[in-house]
C-alpha cells in the first residue's frame, strides 16, 4: 500500500513544520505487565511514539489499554522490558510535570469550583495563586468554558465536565497527554464536538503528543495520525495503522471515501486475531 | 465560592457550629423551605404527641395511679417548674460536660483517624486495640476512670469523651479509606505528597462520613456525661442531670426524675439538630445526602 510507504512521522510533519518534531517521546521495548495477582495484562509490547503524534489505541476491553497508559504515566510499574518516557523513566517524567492524564470519569472535585479544579495540578506544585488562576482561565478558555469559572461541577452536563477535565490536563502545558476513553460516556453529538475541539487544541499546540484510548474505530480514525490495534489474552499491540490524512481535518473527512478505507483497515486489523473475536463489544 | 474550604471547615467549624446561637440559625432555615411543606412535616408527629400526652394524663387520672409510680404529664411539668433553677443548673452542667467531651473526641478522633490513614503500619498495629477497647462496657470503665481521676468534672468529661470517641474514629477512618481510586491516581499523577492528598482529597471526600460519625457521637456524649455523673456525681448544688437523677431516685421524687430524663433527651435532640445543621452547611453544595431539591 502506498500509505504504508510514508514515514511514520509524516502525518505529524504534515501538521507542523516545526524542525525537530520527530524526537522520540515514548518508547516501549518488549514490555510485559503482570499484576501481583498473576494476571498477564500485556505481553511483549513494542511502541515508539514521536513528538507531535496523535495515536489512538483500539481493542476490546481487558486487552491492556489502560495498563499501558498507567505504565507510561508511572502509575504502575512494568514487569519486564524497557520503557522510557521523554528520555527518562515514567516516574521521572511525571515528576517533571510533563505528563497529563484524562480519565473516562471526569474525576473533578465536587466541593470546589471549576477554576479550583482546573488549577489543582498547579496548586499541588506550589504555583502562586495569581499565575495559577491566569493559567486556569487560559485552559478553561481553550475548552470554551471561560465564563463559568465559578460554577461547581455538579451544575455541569457530562460533556462540560469532560471539558473541564481536559482543561485541567492542559493547564500544566504537558508534553504528553494520555486520554483513557475520555468520550466513552458521552452522546454522539457531544462526542463529535469534543473531537473537533480536541484536534484544534492539539494542532495549535505544536509540541503536544496525544495518546488516546477508545472503543470507537471512527473516533480513532478521525483523530489520529496512527491507530494501534490491540488484542487480548495476553494484551498485545498487533498492528499499527497509519492515517496519513493531513490536518486540519474537517467534518467532511468523516464522509470521505478515504475515511471509510481507513476504518476498514483498522476493523480488519481488529478482526484478524481469532482470539479477539469472542471479546468484541 | 462562598462555601468554605472543607479542610478549614473540619474541626474549627464544628466548634463554631456548636456555639452558634440556634435561634438565629433556625430562622434562616425556615426561609429556605416553603411554610406549608414545613407544616405538613410537623403536623403528624405533633398530633401523635398531643394524643399521647393527653391519653397519658387521662389514663393516670382515671386509674388513680400514685404519682411516685407513674406521674401525670402535669405532675412532671409542675416538678420541673418548682425546681426550675435546680434543673437548669443540672442541664447546663451536663451540657458543658458533654460539649467538652464531644469536642475532645472530635479533635482527637479525627486526628487519630488521619494518623492511622496515613500509615498502613500504624493502622494495622493500633486499630485492633481501638476496637477491643470499644467493646468494654462504659459502666465497667467508668469506676476505673473515677478512681484514677477523682470523682468530679475531669472524670465525667473523660467518660463522655471515651463513649463518643469511637464512632468518630471509625467513621472518619472508613471515609478516608473510601476515596475514589481514579481520584487518588490523579493526585499521584500530579505528584501530590501524602499530606497534600490527605488535605485536598481524602479529608474533604471523607466529610460525609465524618459528619455521620459526629451525628452518632453527639448523642453519645450526652449519654456519657450522664453516666459519668451517675457514677462520679458531684455533691452539692452543682451536679449535672445524672446526679439529679440519683438524688430524685433516692427520694422517690418520680415526677422530677421524669423531668430530668426528658431534659436529658431534649439536650440530646438539640445536639443532634445542631450537628444536622452543621452537616447541611458543610455538604449542601456538593454532596447528595444533603442536597436540597
Ligand atoms: N490492578 C489490577 N490488578 C489485577 N489485574 C488487573 C488490574 N488492572 C487490570 N487488570 C487486568 O489486566 C487486564 C487488562 O486490563 P486493562 O488494562 O484495564 O484493559 P482495558 O483498559 O483494555 O480494558 C484485564 O484482564 C484486567 O482484568
Ligand atoms: Mg480501560
TrEMBL record, chain A:
It comes from the Bacteria. InterPro entries: AAA+_ATPase, ABC_transporter-like_ATP-bd, ABC_transporter-like_CS, ABC_transporter_ATP-bind, P-loop_NTPase. Keywords: ATP-binding, Nucleotide-binding, Transport. Residues 26-259 form the ABC transporter domain. Pfam families: ABC_tran. One of its GO terms (molecular function) is ATP binding. This is Nitrate/sulfonate/bicarbonate ABC transporter ATP-binding protein. PROSITE patterns: ABC_TRANSPORTER_1, ABC_TRANSPORTER_2. CDD domains: ABC_NrtD_SsuB_transporters. It comes from Paenibacillus cisolokensis.
Automatic annotation (TrEMBL), chain B:
It is a multi-pass membrane protein. It holds the Pfam family BPD_transp_1. One of its GO terms (molecular function) is ATP binding. Coiled coil: none annotated. Residues 91-279 form the ABC transmembrane type-1 domain. It is found in: Cell membrane. Keywords: ATP-binding, Cell membrane, Membrane, Nucleotide-binding, Transmembrane, Transmembrane helix, Transport. PANTHER family: ABC TRANSPORTER PERMEASE PROTEIN (PTHR30151:SF41), ALKANE SULFONATE ABC TRANSPORTER-RELATED, MEMBRANE SUBUNIT (PTHR30151). This is ABC transporter ATP-binding protein.
Amino acid at each position: 500500500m502506498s500509505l504504508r510507504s510514508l514515514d511514520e512521522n509524516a502525518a505529524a510533519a504534515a501538521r507542523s513544520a516545526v524542525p525537530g518534531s520527530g524526537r522520540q517521546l515514548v518508547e516501549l521495548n518488549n514490555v510485559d505487565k503482570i499484576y501481583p495477582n498473576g494476571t498477564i495484562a500485556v505481553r511483549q509490547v513494542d511502541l515508539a511514539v514521536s513528538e507531535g503524534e496523535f495515536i489512538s489505541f483500539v481493542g476490546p476491553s481487558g486487552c491492556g489499554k489502560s495498563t499501558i497508559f498507567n505504565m507510561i504515566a508511572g502509575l504502575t510499574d512494568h514487569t519486564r522490558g524497557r520503557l522510557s518516557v521523554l528520555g527518562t523513566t515514567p516516574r521521572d517524567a511525571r515528576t517533571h510535570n510533563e505528563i497529563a492524564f484524562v480519565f473516562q470519569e471526569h474525576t473533578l472535585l465536587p466541593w470546589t469550583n471549576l477554576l479550583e479544579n482546573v488549577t489543582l495540578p498547579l496548586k499541588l506544585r506550589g504555583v502562586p495563586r495569581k499565575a495559577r488562576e491566569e493559567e486556569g482561565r487560559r485552559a478553561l478558555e481553550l475548552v470554551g468554558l471561560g465564563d463559568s469559572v465559578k460554577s461547581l461541577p455538579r451544575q455541569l452536563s457530562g460533556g462540560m465536565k469532560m471539558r473541564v477535565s481536559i482543561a485541567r490536563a492542559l493547564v500544566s502545558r504537558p508534553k504528553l497527554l494520555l486520554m483513557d476513553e475520555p468520550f466513552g460516556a458521552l452522546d454522539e453529538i457531544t462526542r463529535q464536538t469534543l473531537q473537533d475541539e480536541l484536534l484544534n487544541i492539539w494542532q495549535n499546540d505544536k509540541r503536544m503528543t496525544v495518546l488516546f484510548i477508545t472503543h470507537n474505530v471512527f473516533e480513532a480514525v478521525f483523530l489520529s495520525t496512527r491507530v494501534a490495534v490491540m488484542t487480548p489474552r495476553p494484551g498485545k499491540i498487533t498492528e499499527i495503522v497509519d492515517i496519513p490524512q493531513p490536518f486540519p481535518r474537517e467534518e467532511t473527512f468523516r464522509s470521505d471515501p478515504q475515511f471509510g478505507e481507513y476504518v476498514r483497515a483498522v476493523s480488519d486489523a481488529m478482526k484478524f486475531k481469532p482470539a479477539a473475536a469472542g471479546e468484541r463489544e | 465560592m462562598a462555601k468554605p474550604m472543607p479542610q478549614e471547615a473540619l474541626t474549627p467549624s464544628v466548634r463554631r457550629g456548636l456555639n452558634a446561637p440556634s435561634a438565629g440559625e433556625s430562622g434562616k432555615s425556615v426561609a429556605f423551605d416553603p411554610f406549608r411543606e414545613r407544616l405538613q412535616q410537623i403536623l403528624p408527629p405533633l398530633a401523635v404527641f398531643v394524643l399521647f400526652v393527653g391519653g397519658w394524663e387521662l389514663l393516670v387520672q382515671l386509674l388513680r395511679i400514685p404519682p411516685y409510680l407513674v406521674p401525670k404529664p402535669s405532675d412532671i411539668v409542675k416538678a420541673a417548674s418548682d425546681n426550675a433553677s435546680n434543673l437548669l443548673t443540672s442541664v447546663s452542667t451536663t451540657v458543658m460536660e458533654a460539649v467538652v467531651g464531644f469536642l475532645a473526641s472530635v479533635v482527637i478522633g479525627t486526628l487519630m483517624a488521619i494518623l492511622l490513614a496515613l500509615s498502613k503500619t500504624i493502622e494495622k498495629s493500633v486499630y485492633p486495640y481501638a476496637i477491643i477497647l470499644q467493646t468494654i462496657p462504659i459502666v465497667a470503665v467508668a469506676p476505673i476512670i473515677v478512681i484514677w481521676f477523682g470523682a468530679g468534672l475531669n472524670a465525667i468529661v473523660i467518660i463522655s469523651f471515651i463513649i463518643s470517641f469511637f464512632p468518630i474514629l471509625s467513621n472518619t477512618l472508613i471515609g478516608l479509606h473510601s476515596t475514589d481510586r481514579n481520584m487518588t491516581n490523579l493526585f499521584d499523577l500530579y505528584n501530590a505528597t501524602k499530606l497534600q492528598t490527605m488535605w485536598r482529597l481524602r479529608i474533604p471526600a471523607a466529610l460525609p462520613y465524618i459528619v455521620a460519625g459526629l451525628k452518632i457521637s453527639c448523642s453519645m456524649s450526652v449519654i456519657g456525661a450522664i453516666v459519668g455523673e451517675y457514677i462520679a456525681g458531684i455533691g452539692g448544688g452543682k451536679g449535672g442531670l445524672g446526679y439529679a437523677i440519683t438524688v430524685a431516685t433516692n427520694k422517690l421524687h418520680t415526677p422530677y426524675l421524669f423531668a430530668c430524663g426528658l431534659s436529658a433527651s431534649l439536650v440530646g435532640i438539640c445536639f443532634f439538630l445542631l450537628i444536622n445543621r452543621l452537616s447541611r452547611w458543610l455538604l449542601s453544595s456538593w454532596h447528595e445526602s444533603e442536597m436540597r431539591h
